[in-house]
Amino acid sequence: MTQTAEEIETRRPVIRSLPPIGPRRLIARTALGLVLFAVLAIAAVMLAPASFWRWLIVHEVSRSTGRAASAGDVRVHLFSLNPELSVEDLTIANPAWAAAHDMLKLKRFDATLSLSSLLRFHLIFPQVTLDTPAIDVERDSSGRANWDFSGAGKRQGNNSASAPLHIPVIKQLNLSNGTLSAVDRIRKLTFNGHVSVAETANTADSHALKVRGSGTLNGKPFQLILDGEPLIGVQPSKPYGFETSVTAADIKLSAHTTIPHPFDLAALQASFHVSGSDLADVYYLTGLALPNTPPYDVSGTLVRDKLRFKVDDFHGKLGSSDVSGNLSIDTGRERPKLTATLVSKQLNLADLAAPLGTEASPARKSNTLATATSVAAPAPALLLPDADLQVQRVRGMDADVHFDAASVTTAKMPMNKVRFHLTLDNGKIALDPLAFALPQGEFSGTVTIDAQGSTPQTSIDMKLSNVDLGQFKPKSGKEAPLEGQLLGRIKMHGSGTSVHKTAADADGDITLVIPKGEMREAFAELTGIDVSRGLGLILTKDERNTDVHCGVASFKANDGDLKATAFLIDTTNMLVTGQGQIDLKNETLDLSLRGQPKKVRILRLRTPILVRGTLLQPKIGVQPGRVAAQTGGAVALGVLLTPVAALLAFVDGGLAKDANCAALIGQAEQTKGLSKE
Fold this sequence. Notes:
Layout: H1 5-11, H2 23-46, H3 50-65, E1 69-70, E2 74-77, E3 84-93, E4 102-112, H4 115-119, E5 124-125, E6 127-139, E7 169-170, E8 173-184, E9 189-199, E10 209-217, E11 220-228, E12 240-248, E13 251-259, E14 267-276, H5 283-286, E15 296-305, E16 308-318, E17 321-330, E18 337-344, E19 347-348, H6 353-356, H7 362-365, H8 391-394, E20 398-405, E21 408-409, E22 417-425, E23 428-437, E24 442-450, E25 457-468, E26 482-495, H9 499-504, E27 507-514, E28 517-520, H10 521-526, H11 531-539, E29 545-558, E30 561-571, E31 574-583, E32 588-597, E33 609-613, E34 618-622, H12 633-640, H13 644-651, H14 659-671
Parallel strand pairs: 5-7, 6-8, 18-20, 19-21
Antiparallel strand pairs: 1-3, 2-3, 3-4, 4-6, 8-9, 9-10, 10-11, 11-12, 12-13, 13-14, 14-15, 15-16, 16-17, 17-18, 20-22, 22-23, 23-24, 24-25, 25-26, 26-27, 26-28, 27-29, 28-29, 29-30, 30-31, 31-32, 32-33, 33-34
Helix pairs in contact: 12-14
């Protein structure tokens, strides 16, 4: 039976299109799907076995630190407003180069988290307990640190800037049987100690939180006492305060600290007081390369703003000198930078000996944090300090320090003021200017030390300007032995880790000039050993003076050996000349002075006066059994004054035009070519 096309069409099923889904229904269905997924995910998490949590914790710790980690039993309780986590036997391994096997071993870790704080994205832990944590901290001499979890695992330099700690708020913290060991090859620091944290139940106690630490730092006793407000009442927006006391060898530090936002150490304020025998030892606690000092006692208020620390009311004593001013430390750089402006109302010049490198007494040094060194045989007493510059410390920070002393006390010479501007940049130290102001005159110039290489390189360029010699009077006499204006210049370069070692290697020039003045006539006569006149003047305590027309003393340094290139004092009646050398390696003197009378003397002995001994203990005498060769005064003058014109220009370009010295130089030119008598 044949069907028509119309019949076939009428028998096909009718397909009707569904009505379109509106935006509201689409959003509602999507939200329902997400909720169902979240519920299933939460249910899966809550019902996850302990093995899953142990795997997750070990995996995340290993991933974030790059170290092998392990854990024992793990318990999680999530069906609570304060979910709980408990982990036993948690360990984090050290890198392969470290001495200890594990960086962290923790017997048990318990913590509860406020669920409401999690929803507010401001975590609060009602309770955290650490049972028997053992922590090992290490840094080797190349700068690798086991606390550095960066991919490279190594940072260059002594200091690496780190962001301030932002620790979640903890309402109750308990830490028992904690141990900490630390070895820092760069700072030459070792620490072994114990730490505990507990809080008393009496929340009314303003010092309810008790943190205690004890041990040894570089073999010396160390103690930490921290008493804080109760943690139970801590609020994220309420300031938190605590008292701290630290004793490390002879360093004693006490501080009251306030944190505007508890557990957020990016900002804090601390009033502190610290004392000890040498401020340089603070390096072991802070990493700052401060100079050596005499015993110190200083205070101030430290304000931290992220990576910057400021003290605007720094004040106290360094030795018998007062010091005050402001300073700041910027740690957010490749190397931390110290910036300071310091003043002293009364500076004792002896207190500057320590920054130059004078060694502390054995009794004092044994009580500091400096690492022990082998005891060498006693060395001869030296005038120039021989304590080594700690180049590793110098390379680890930068500095910009201004210092100004308004008044100076010194036992050996008059002095009014001391001022300097010190900069330290990437291992290069510059004192520019360095100035010592006398009542009349100034000793000023620049000193630079390049400590970037294996051995520091030091350059000195200092000048004596308009110094009145009359201000240097002996204790036993009313009159100065020499009067007049003194000018001079020291320009030297040497390598060495101490002042003495640098001097023992130095090359350069030292020149002193007296354009005109007066000398004790007795001394001038004695340089010619005039028995009838010079000795008589001494015995009668004759205070008469003789005019000094021009005086020049110049030494050429070569590898620490200072040789006299010109030494003369031209007086009315006598031409005093000198020769010899000073060995800066062992600081010995070998100088002789000879006087050439300008008039005939009957009872004159042609024997030079000798200066022997050391810089610290010079000895003056007459060389026995030797008669000096007679030399005509004019010839001696010609020979000795040949280089004087250049020496005068070295000190001051205008000196060659001075009437007295110019006349003397003219005489020298006229006497060239004369033969010896």
